[in-house]
Amino acid sequence: MLSFADISDTLGRLAIEVPSWAYGNSGTRFKVFGQPGTPRDVREKLADAAQVNALTGLAPTVALHIPWDKVDDYADLAAYAETLGVRLGTINSNTFQDDDYKLGSLAHPDPAVRAKAIAHNVECIGIMTQTGVRDLKIWLADGTNYPGQDDIRERQDRLADSLAQIYSYLADDQRLVLEYKFFEPAFYHTDVPDWGTSLLHCLALGDKAYVCLDTGHHAPGTNIEFIVASLLRQGRLGSFDFNSRFYADDDLIVGSADPFQLFRILYEVVRGGGFPNPDVALMLDQCHNIENHIEGQIRSVLNVQEMLARALLVDVDALRAAQQAGDVLTANRVFMDAFYTDVRPDLAQFREAQGLPADPVAAFRASGYQQQIESARVGGRAAGWN
Ligand code: RM4
Ligand code: MN
């Protein structure tokens, strides 16, 4: 087995992008429980995100959702982020909350609605240009609820055309990442339900189009690490939206529902050259409905770090030797040895060596930051969907 010293330099390159919306209130369709101290605007979301980075050294960029994080001056916002020690990250477009989008957005039957959704994405590319951000992430709520409701084949044609129009606005150093999700909010069919559909659209668009894999967007039992391996083989895995789920798209803390699955995914990321690799953005897409937002984010980035450390510990030479010898159980044992290694003491030391707290959650609780925002911020708003 490898030791922590063998992997610490590589592990030190980990950077996780956090979502601005994780700092807002969120909930289910049944109830949103507000939390005191919730950010009232994007600047306060950035300030909270900066705490996560300051305490863990793991979260240097913050993804924005437009229009939830709309401001008049994006260059100014980017400069403000820098003063907090973070940078702006992926721009997420949002074509799922206007009344016009009831029947879809980029695949809508009405060309006028498609044009509106395209224009919104072009506006997002403009924000990327102003802020030096590389990626536009598109997640669509498009789909149908009833068989026969719309022509599912023609919807693919409309979608392809809309995406091509958006893609044509990208600069050479910008990318489009297309996220898939197998159901919800549409219940019968979804226009980008799976990685195959996303990949087909990306291949048609060109080499600046990549797939975004949200770990919560698969049917139960799906072998996600296989998808990771396949997309990395094609050079088309652009980004992850990490979270975890028990049943549907639960958006729980990454690694909380199934740590072994996270380990297997990160093993394939490393195996396929997806880490360290700036072309594969490791992002969180989560909601903290009942736990403290900032602590939830701290725990999340630490979970990714911990499982990545274990994945890096896999003795790949011993694994390959066992695989090639057809020694099934030795291969499995080599793999499991890494998974079962408790790296938490090493990680605590690793943090301290960088001048970071050994226990970032405890440090956050001791910092007084939460108390300070609770008294300073009144009327904090939701993430945007309620
Ligand atoms: C979607 C999808 C997107 C995220 C929104 C908030 O389910 O996962 O990535 O931007 O939720
Ligand atoms: Mn997502």
Q: What does this molecule look like?
A:
The chain has 386 residues and is α/β, with parallel strands linked by helices. It has 14 helices and ten strands. It has helices at residues 4-11, 42-56, 74-83, 111-131, 152-167, 195-205, 224-233, 259-271, 293-312, 316-324, 328-339, 344-353, 360-367, 369-376, and strands at 17-19, 61-66, 87-93, 135-138, 143-144, 175-179, 189-190, 209-214, 237-242, 281-284. Helix 3 (74-83) links the parallel strand 2 (61-66) and strand 3. The longest helix is centred in the N-terminal third of the chain and has 21 residues, at 111-131. It is globular and about 60 Å long. It starts with a helix and ends in a 10-residue tail after the last helix. Beta-L-rhamnopyranose binds at residues 65, 92, 139, 179, 214, 241, 249, 285.
Characterize the overall form.
globular
> What is the overall number of helices?
14
Q: What's the end-to-end separation, in Å? A: 49 Å
Cα Rg? 21 Å
How would you write the strand order of the largest sheet? 1-2-3-4-6-8-9-10
- Give the integer mean of the pLDDT values: 97
In N-to-C order, the SSE pattern is HEHEHEHEEHEEHEHEHEHHHHHH
In quaternary terms, these chains amount to single chain
Share of helical residues: 40-55%
Strand content bin: 5-15%
Molecules bound to protein: beta-L-rhamnopyranose, manganese (II) ion
